[in-house]
C-alpha cells in the first residue's frame, strides 16, 4: 500500500471536520459541576473537538493530578511546566461529580507526573476506589500514562480493578521523537501487554492519531503488533488537529473513507472493537465499547 501524499502547505479544514459550538442544558450543567468541584477535564485542557457532543450527552473525561504536565508532546495542548502539589481530596471530588452527573461510564485520565516516584498511580487507584464507593454501578475506564515503564505503578492501578485500561500509542514508531518526546513505543506496547498478562479479564484499549506523516503500512503494522503481541481489545483512531501554531503541523487530512477502511482492517486483524473517524478521540463513544 502506497504512503499517503504529504501536504506541504496548510490546507483549509475540510467539511467533514466541522464541529458544532457547545450549547444546551447538559453542557452547561456539566461545566458548572466541574467548576464547583474544582475539577479538570481533558475535553477542555486538550481542546477536544467533540466537547459539544459529549458534554451535551452528559459525558466527560476527568483529568486528575492537576492540569500541568511534566512532558511536552508535540501534539498536545495541555500545559507543560513545573509539577503541582498533590491534591489528596481530588479523588473524592471526582466521585462526587460522577454521582451528581449520574454517569454510567466514567473516564479518568491524567497529566504525566514524572517527578513522582509512582507517576501518580496511587492517586489513580484512590480515584477508582472513591468513584466505586459512591457509584457501584458505574463502569470505570482509566486512560493512564506510561509511568516510565514501572510495573509496580501499573499493578497499583490494576489492583483497583477498573473495567477498561487505556494507554494511547498515539503514533507510529518512526515519529515518536517528534510526537512523543520522553516516551518510547516499545515501552508503551509492553505496558499494554503486561496489563493483559496481569489482568486477563480487563478490557485493554489504545489509540492512534493519523495525519502526522505516517504511512498506512506503518499504521497497519502497529495494529498487528497491538493485537498479536499486546492482545489489545479496543482501538481508536482519529485525525490529528493542530491545537496552536506552536504545535506539530498537520501533514494531511485523512478522508472518512480511509477511516472506514482502517476500521475494517482493524477488525480483520483482530480488535474486538474499532472506533475510527476524523473526530474520534480516546474517550469518544467510550460507554459503547463495554460488552
Tell me about this structure.
- This protein has 291 residues and is an alpha/beta fold.
- The chain has helices at 25-36, 42-45, 51-56, 90-101, 121-134, 151-159, 176-179, 185-198, 216-228, 256-269; strands spanning 40-41, 61-64, 68-69, 79-80, 105-110, 139-143, 164-166, 203-210, 234-239, 273-276.
- Helix content is 35%, strand content 14%.
- The chain has an eight-stranded mixed β-sheet. The chain has a two-stranded parallel ribbon with strand order 3-4.
- Strand 5, helix 5 and strand 6 form a beta-alpha-beta unit.
- The longest helix has 14 residues, at 121-134.
- Mean pLDDT is 84; it is low at 1-9.
Key traits:
8-stranded mixed sheet, single chain, two-stranded parallel sheet, 291 residues, alpha/beta
Topology diagram in text:
Elements: H1 25-36, E1 40-41, H2 42-45, H3 51-56, E2 61-64, E3 68-69, E4 79-80, H4 90-101, E5 105-110, H5 121-134, E6 139-143, H6 151-159, E7 164-166, H7 176-179, H8 185-198, E8 203-210, H9 216-228, E9 234-239, H10 256-269, E10 273-276
Parallel strand pairs: 2-5, 3-4, 5-6, 6-7, 7-8, 8-9, 9-10
Antiparallel strand pairs: 1-2
Helix pairs in contact: 4-5, 5-6, 6-8, 9-10
Mean pLDDT: 84
Residue fraction in strands:
5-15%
Distance between the termini: 33 Å
Count of β-strands: 10
**The CATH homology group name:** Aldolase class I
The structural domain count equals: 1
* Number of helical segments with 4 or more residues: 10
Task: Tell me the structural class.
Answer: alpha/beta
